[in-house]
């Protein structure tokens, strides 16, 4: 095979030819015949046969290009701006609404009926709730919507209502509170709260036993802490130092002890309970005064010792 190259000035093009040799005597002629020729691109028509493949040539109909419709951009869903939590607060304020009640309207109606009509007779029991449901023309199984422990829910309702009604009770005794000191005010307010247990005091030990269960302890402790904070707030305490916590913790312990003492008090008008409360509050005040005195003494002694060492040349 011979390869003939032809340089046309622009590009180097090559074409291959087969060598056909026809020998006649001594002469040899070399015929250079092109093996393939480049055919111009022909247009194919439907129904005709291809000269190379002998197959019918079909052309796919050209689909006109359509402009894709631009889908309108969807705006992301706009969420409304968060509303300020005006119903939640962890502090006392006269310019904010009180926090929402943990009880619905239906629960409040049923629990109020049981608390005022049947607990003094049947105690903090499920029959009290069943009788209250009958008074409201409800089914006997209606207390089941209170949760897994309807009796604990009833006790919680008593603790909640007595705490939230304490400000109105204090306003009724405003003439007595006006001329008292802060310590005397929270003594009177604590006594007023204890007196709210008087109609159901014979069943209160049963209620304390229910609230001492592990699942009910957080509820009882939270209500006790909020009660102590409510009493100090109504008494006019404005402390902003660490005694804010110690005062409320001390009052919580004193109130719990006085409440337990009241369940066994047989004196007229629970006067023994009031004397017990007064003694505990006085002891706490004396202990607080002693702690403050010790703190002041330690601070004075430490300051004097530092000044003495500085006078001796010690760099402190």
Morphology call: elongated
Helix content: 40-55%
Tally of DSSP β-strands: 4
Distance N to C terminus: 108 Å
Q: What is the CATH architecture term of one domain?
A: Orthogonal Bundle
Instruction: Please mark out the parts with pLDDT under 50 across 5 or more consecutive residues, or reply none.
Output: 1-37, 44-54, 83-88
Strand order across the biggest sheet?
1-2
CATH class of one domain: Mainly Alpha
Instruction: Kindly identify the CATH topology of one domain.
Output: Tetracycline Repressor, domain 2
Radius of gyration: 49 Å
Quaternary class: single chain
Q: What structural class do you assign from the helix and strand content?
A: mainly alpha
Please state roughly what percent of the residues sit in beta strands, choosing from under 5%, 5-15%, 15-25%, 25-35%, 35-45% or over 45%. Answer: 5-15%
Q: Can you give the mean pLDDT?
A: 75
- Spell the H/E element sequence: EEEEHHHHHHHHHHH
In DSSP terms, counting alpha (H) and pi (I) runs of 4 or more, how many helices? 11
| Main sheet summary | 2 strands, antiparallel
Organism: Podospora pseudoanserina
Protein name: Ubiquinone biosynthesis protein
Pfam family, one: COQ9
Pathway: Cofactor biosynthesis; ubiquinone biosynthesis
């Amino acid at each position: 095979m011979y390869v003939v190259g032809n340089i046309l000035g622009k590009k180097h093009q090559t074409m291959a030819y087969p060598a056909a040799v026809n020998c006649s005597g001594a002469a040899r002629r070399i015929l250079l015949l092109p093996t393939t020729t480049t055919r111009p691109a022909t247009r194919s028509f439907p129904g005709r046969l291809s000269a190379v493949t002998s197959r019918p040539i079909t052309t796919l109909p050209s689909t006109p290009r359509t402009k894709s419709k631009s889908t309108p951009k969807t705006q992301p869903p706009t969420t409304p701006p968060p509303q300020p939590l005006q119903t939640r607060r962890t502090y006392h304020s006269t310019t904010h609404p009180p926090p929402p009640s943990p009880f619905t309207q239906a629960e409040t109606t049923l629990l109020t009926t049981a608390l005022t009509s049947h607990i003094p007779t049947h105690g903090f029991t499920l029959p009290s709730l069943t009788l209250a449901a009958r008074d409201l023309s409800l089914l006997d199984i209606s207390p089941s919507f209170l949760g897994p422990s309807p009796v604990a829910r009833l006790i919680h309702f008593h603790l909640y209502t007595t705490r939230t009604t304490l400000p109105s009770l204090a306003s009724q005794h405003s003439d007595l509170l006006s001329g008292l000191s802060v310590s005397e005010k929270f003594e009177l307010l604590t006594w007023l709260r204890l007196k709210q247990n008087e109609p159901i005091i014979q069943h209160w030990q049963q209620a304390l036993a229910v609230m001492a269960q592990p699942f009910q302890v957080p509820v009882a402790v939270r209500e006790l802490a909020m009660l102590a904070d409510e009493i100090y707030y109504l008494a006019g305490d404005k402390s902003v130092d660490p005694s804010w916590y110690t005062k409320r913790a001390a009052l919580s312990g004193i109130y719990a002890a006085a409440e337990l003492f009241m369940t066994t008090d047989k004196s007229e008008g629970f006067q023994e309970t009031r004397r017990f409360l007064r003694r505990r509050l006085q002891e706490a005040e004396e202990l607080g005064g002693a702690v403050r005195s010790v703190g002041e003494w330690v601070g004075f002694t430490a300051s004097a010792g530092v000044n003495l060492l500085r006078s001796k040349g010690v760099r402190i």
